[in-house]
Amino acid sequence: MSESTSARERMVPGGPEPAGRRPRAPSPTRRRLGFVRRVAGALLGLTMLGGVVAGIVGWSAYSRFSADLPTLDGLRHYQPRVMSRVYSGDDRLMVEFATERRIFVPYTAIPDLVKQAFLSAEDQNFWSHRGVDPLAIARAAFTDLTRMGANRRPVGASTITQQVAKNMLVGNEVSLTRKAREAILALRIEGTLSKERILELYLNEIYLGEKAYGVAAAAQVYFNKSLDQLDAAEAALLAALPKAPNNYDPFRARDAARGRRDWVLDRMVDTRAITAATAAAAKAEPVVAAGARRPDMVPGAEWFTDEVRRQLVERFGADQTAQGGLVVHTSLDPALQLAADGALREGLLAYDRAHGGWRGPVTRLAGGRAGWQAALGAVPHTAATMPRSDGSMGWGRRSRSERVPWRCPSLAGRVRCATASRVRRRGGSRTCCRSATW
User: Fold this and answer.
1) Cβ atoms 68, 186 nearer than 8 A
2) What is the mean pLDDT of the chain?
3) What is the mean pLDDT of residues 390-415?
4) How far out from the chain centre does Cα 359 lie?
5) Cα–Cα distance between 121 and 263 in angstroms, integer?
6) CB count in 10 Å sphere of residue 268
């Protein structure tokens, strides 16, 4: 009975080992697996500890940078600084008052070609990221590391949302603190405003050189066109300006502007905004900045518009006058104003001729442009060149001894004077002539 029980115990797995047998050593595979598990556990623990530390540090930095950030109320209730315009009685533009030349255009009125040009150049992942683009940040960081010690400005990785935060809320300070604050605000903006609203703010606020803010004002300044009249080359040139408006100004740096414009066209091909054929045709176009022309402005209305400005400032204040987008219609009649201006000019000329008029140059300065100031200082102060209060020379009245005297004949009655003389009566029948010969 005991022998059968012992046999069953030896057959049962996990039963007591027979007396006198040694336990088997673990296999090398099991030892390796145990070592791997211990290392993995240690790494997991270190990772969790690092995550906790990183979370504490990140929360501390977030609390520090976001402590005094501006609110987003200004973006929710955005009122653009738009120039005011004054029109004549027949609706002709007379003058514009502005500290920033801006024409606000809503999102739906901006052509898709212009939107795609700026998105291709500034933020290709605009519709997918949430305010910050990690891939762009990593790419910019790698580029900055390769340029370390080259004394060059760091490459930017700001999204359009970050640029809105910088332009409207944070400022242009070059520092890591500003970039951190900008990123936090970008995340908040994305959670508050729609993508369309963010792009609308950007395209109307961005500075594009030549005192032009926003794409509509820039289109007028550089091409004298509205947005819907721009072709691919012109839209790409506008999108080339945000990086450095002065360096790519088509008026002063055409070669640099063309190179940057062609780069934008290539990016537009990459994003499938335009075809390669369209880009090639646009690259063949020269960079020609037409400049804004104002053929409809009323000539001779400067004094009138100055008075209009003075009254607007008294009524609405200087800021509202220059930034409030006022539209002022006046009673000025351009035809009557031009006639009045001409009559005043002719009257002043006639008055000047009657009192001596133009008497020719005082002298002629020799020596060309080099020594004209010294030669002018050596000119004696005659009656015709009277020094003004600021030290410059101007025309003055002749002295009494220099004036042509009146000659009065002793005989009574009518006296015929010379053709170029004037006639004046003194004491009734006596006639005097102002002339050297009579």
Assistant:
1) no
2) 77
3) 46
4) 50
5) 8
6) 25
244: three-class secondary structure by DSSP: coil
Q: Which helix (H) or strand (E) holds 28?
A: helix 28-65
Look at residue 95 and give its three-state secondary structure.
Answer: strand
Instruction: Return the beta strands (E) in 182-286 as ranges.
Output: 212-213
DSSP-based three-state secondary structure for 23: coil
408 pLDDT band, cuts 50/70/90, is low
Amino acid 263: pLDDT: 95
Both tokens assigned to 14: 């996990």
Q: Which CATH number is associated with domain 100-141+157-283?
A: 1.10.3810.10
pLDDT at 149 over 50: yes
pLDDT, mean of residues 114-129: 93
Residue for token pair 């030549």: 210
Sign of CA pseudo-dihedral 359, 364, 369, 373? negative
Residue 435 exposed, middle or buried by CB count within 10 Å (0-12, 13-18, 19+): middle
Distance of alpha carbon 263 from alpha carbon 267, whole angstroms: 6
Domain boundaries, the chain: 100-141+157-283, 406-434
Overall residue count recorded for the chain in this entry? 438
* 346-354 LR contacts (CB < 8 Å, sep 24+): none
CA neighbor of 137 nearest in space, from 165, 120, 156 = 156
- The residue whose two tokens read 């500034």 is 122
- Closest CA relative to residue 101, chosen from 248, 235, 209: 209
152: which strand partners? Answer: none
Q: At what angle do helices 254-270 and 276-283 cross, to 10 degrees?
A: 180
Q: Can you tell me the distance from the alpha carbon of 85 to that of 100, in angstroms, rounded to the nearest whole number?
A: 13
Average pLDDT for 90-102 = 85
pTM listed for this prediction: 0.61
Task: Return d(Cα 394, Cα 318) in angstroms, integer.
Answer: 36
| Element housing 403 (H / E) | none
